[in-house]
Amino acid sequence: MFSDRLENLLPDLRAYARVLCADVTRADDIVQNACLKAWKNRADFDESKGALKGWLFRIVRNEFYSQVRAERVRAADTLDQVEHELVADGGLEPRQILSRMLSAVASLKDAQRDAFLLVAAAGFTYEEAGDVLGCSAGTVKSRVSRAREIAFGRFNSDYWSSDAPVGSSEPLDDLHDALDKIQSVKRAA
To answer: Which domains does the chain have, with CATH numbers?
Structure first.
């Protein structure tokens, strides 16, 4: 039944959304909106065109980018946002390392970052990721390879610094938990 299959994929969808946006509340909103869209369009889902998991991940991804575009239109820097961007992460060294790696991944081009997250973090095969991203498995392999090279190069560079805001410890913990959850779901399957 569609509702049971959708419910079984909720942890994976939440983890993917959390990795995309680095905000638990926003990620849950994205997943909720994506589930509503999937439910409304469940009659349009065609199993012969791809797996339900890929279809749902694509909806989550599209919902995230729709929200990003909407934010850009109404974006106005508030004092809190500016302060948040200027405050350095005061956590322990492992937290700083994680923050630097997340910043390196976040700085990738959208296509590379999406492919990398689906394959490396969500455990998708190249074919499944290709279905979500609307491209071939070969293109996904190329994007993931290039993303790894760029992200690790930036991470290890003494000259690279991210323009992305450094999050508070809570979103970093949530991202780490999301990655752990993806791995545990994969091991259980």
So the answer is: 2-188 (1.20.140.160)
pLDDT at 168 over 50: no
Coil, helix or strand at residue 123: coil
Q: For 122-140, write each residue's pLDDT tens digit.
A: 888 899 889 889 999 999 9
Does the pTM of the predicted model rise above 0.85? Answer: no
Q: Do residues 115 and 133 lie in contact, with contact meaning Cβ atoms separated by under 8 Å?
A: yes
Place of tokens 């498995």: 137
Give per-residue burial for 144-169: e unless 16+ CB within 10 Å, then b.
bebbbebbeebbeeeeeebeebbbee
Q: How far apart are CA 116 and CA 126, in angstroms?
A: 10
Q: Give the end-to-end CA distance of the chain in Å, rounded to a whole number.
A: 19
For residue 15, pLDDT beyond 50: yes
